């Protein structure tokens, strides 16, 4: 028999752990509340996106699911004594700096991932790494709340178009394709954002990852199912697009057009996902019993070893407050807004013309000032568009998914090809974006595009954002512009030759006009 007195050490340990939790949980609530208050604009931007975009409506469910996942294993977590960890505070401070860079560059997804990471890091900071390990998946699941994934739209649309055209040709249907637009004998079709399948993929990944965690305890099985949850909706979307076009073709465009186009798509997707989960459930593993707490606890670092969870929560709040204060300080000294771009000087051999190259304007929204002019050289015409941005924010910025050459629903113009090439602009060699546009009356136009960010030239969205963040961080402002030149493809000498000749002649004047606009503060 066991002596009653021998149970006392274990009982004392249990009581000590329970007492530690009673002080640690309120401290964690304070830390999370402080982060959400300090970064409330970022948090509200996430919520606003959940409500505005159907693709990310699942975001409303992610926080409650995270709390439920933690609650269902509370018995396992309660076995561990919470102890603050200093290193997590340092990681949180570094994450706050990433948030600041995201705000300065107006990249919402960076700021939102940083905010989510700070919320996650609050757990090991206040409760310790052993606790955080036990709820690692629920914490990681919180990242599905970040509205992320639309960057993949162009690639997914390209894949969908490739598969659909290949399927039609293998079915014996002749297809003429330009970009994301293709024509078959029964009519014309286009792959637009809704055809990309990004909604299917995000929904499948979110639910599939949760299913894998709840159904398996083997890491290998979990990773395999998550991989399947990504691949299946991609392929299912390709099949959906192909079948919709075939239904329209075989029914003389009486079926799978308009609203039922989307209905058929979601019904097919729902069926495929249901089958995927049914197959996955056949390899379901039994839930593991609660694991006892380790006998030896890792060191939390000198700072946290002698600190209470409440003290760590207040230190965490102080560290988190640094970056919103830094942003406020940077934004205090913004220059006045501008209303026009400084006038270009004469361009040798290319006088300005009163006629337009084409009835087309790039779809760049909310610029501080714009200029669109046509220039002529003998029998060649080139258009120039400058969109200038200063004091950028989330509704008024240069690099945005809303700023494009042509909207996918444009009734007059369509982008039928794209690429890149090297040019020399004001003695600098840069890579630019190229595109070919086609109008409904078969006019074709060649377009070149790149960015000017406080004197730096690039066509990369990422580099433009980095230049903007560093420029603002060093107090030089965020003056930026998009430079677009365009010319009819079928003019004398060709559109590309006309663009190259114009850029060589106009580069110094374009650079001077943008620099003078920046310096006029």
Describe this structure in words.
The chain is α+β, with helices and mostly antiparallel strands. The protein folds into three domains: 179 residues, no CATH class; 123 residues, no CATH class; 168 residues. The protein is 51% helix and 15% strand. The strands form two sheets. Strands 4, 5, 6, 7, 8, 9, 10 and 11 form an eight-stranded antiparallel sheet that branches. Strands 1-2-3 form a three-stranded antiparallel sheet, with no helix packed on it. Helix 5 runs antiparallel to helix 6, helix 5 crosses helix 15 and helix 10 packs parallel to helix 12. The N terminus is likely disordered.
Class inferred from helices and paired strands: alpha+beta
Question: What's the pLDDT, averaged over the residues?
Answer: 87
Question: Any idea what the radius of gyration is?
Answer: 29 Å
Order of helices and strands: HHHHHHHHHEEEHHHHHEEEEEEEHEH
Which regions contain 5 or more consecutive residues with pLDDT less than 50? Answer: 1-8, 295-302
Number of domains: 3
Q: How many beta-strand elements? A: 11
Count of alpha and pi helical runs: 16
Query: Share of helix among residues?
Result: 40-55%
Into which percentage range does the β-strand content fall? 15-25%
Q: Specify the overall morphology.
A: flat
Taking the alpha carbons of the first and last residues, their distance comes to 87 Å
Please give the largest β-sheet: 8 strands, antiparallel
């Amino acid at each position: 028999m066991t002596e009653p007195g021998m149970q006392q050490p274990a009982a004392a340990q249990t009581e000590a752990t329970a007492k530690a939790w009673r002080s640690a949980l309120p401290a964690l609530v304070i830390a999370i509340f402080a982060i959400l208050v300090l970064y409330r604009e970022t948090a509200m931007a996430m919520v606003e996106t959940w409500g505005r975009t159907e693709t990310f409506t699942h975001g409303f469910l992610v926080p409650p699911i995270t709390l439920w996942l933690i609650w269902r294993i509370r018995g396992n977590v309660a076995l561990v004594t919470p102890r603050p960890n200093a290193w997590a505070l340092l990681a949180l401070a570094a994450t706050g700096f990433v948030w600041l860079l995201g705000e300065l560059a107006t990249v919402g997804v960076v700021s939102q991932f940083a905010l989510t990471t700070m919320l996650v890091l609050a757990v090991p900071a206040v409760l310790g790494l052993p606790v955080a390990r036990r709820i690692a998946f629920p914490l990681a699941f919180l990242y599905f709340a970040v509205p992320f994934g639309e960057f993949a739209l162009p690639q997914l649309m390209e894949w969908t178009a490739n598969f659909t055209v290949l399927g039609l040709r293998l079915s014996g249907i002749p297809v003429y394709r330009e970009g994301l637009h293709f024509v078959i004998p029964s009519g014309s079709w286009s792959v637009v954002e809704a055809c990309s399948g990004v909604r299917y993929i995000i929904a499948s990944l979110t639910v599939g990852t949760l299913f894998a965690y709840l159904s398996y305890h083997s890491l290998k099985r979990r990773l395999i199912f998550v991989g399947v949850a990504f691949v299946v909706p991609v392929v299912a979307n390709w099949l959906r697009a192909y079948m919709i076009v075939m239904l329209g073709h075989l029914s003389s465009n009486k079926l799978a057009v308009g609203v039922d186009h989307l209905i058929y798509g979601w019904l097919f997707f729902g069926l495929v996902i249901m089958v995927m989960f049914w197959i996955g459930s056949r390899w379901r593993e039994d839930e593991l019993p609660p694991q006892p707490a380790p006998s030896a606890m890792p060191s939390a670092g000198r700072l946290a070893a002698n600190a209470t969870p409440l003290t760590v929560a207040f230190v965490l709040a102080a560290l988190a407050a640094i970056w919103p204060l830094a942003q406020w300080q940077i934004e205090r000294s913004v220059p006045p807004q501008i209303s026009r771009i400084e006038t270009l000087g004469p361009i040798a051999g290319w006088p300005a013309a009163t006629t337009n190259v084409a009835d087309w304007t790039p779809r760049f929204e909310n610029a501080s000032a714009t200029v669109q002019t046509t220039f002529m050289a003998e029998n060649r015409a080139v258009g120039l568009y400058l969109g200038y941005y200063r004091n950028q924010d989330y509704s008024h910025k240069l690099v945005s998914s809303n700023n494009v050459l042509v909207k996918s629903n444009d009734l007059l113009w369509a982008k039928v090809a794209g690429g890149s090439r090297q040019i020399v602009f004001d003695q600098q060699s840069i890579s630019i974006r190229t595109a070919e546009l086609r109008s409904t009356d078969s006019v074709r136009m060649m377009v070149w595009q790149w960015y000017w960010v406080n004197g730096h030239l690039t066509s990369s969205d990422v580099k433009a954002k980095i230049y903007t963040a560093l420029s603002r961080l060093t107090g030089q402002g965020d003056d930026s512009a998009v430079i677009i030149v365009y010319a009819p493809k079928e003019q004398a000498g060709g559109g590309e030759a006309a663009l190259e000749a114009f850029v060589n002649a106009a580069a110094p004047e374009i650079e001077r006009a943008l620099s003078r606009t920046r310096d006029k503060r």
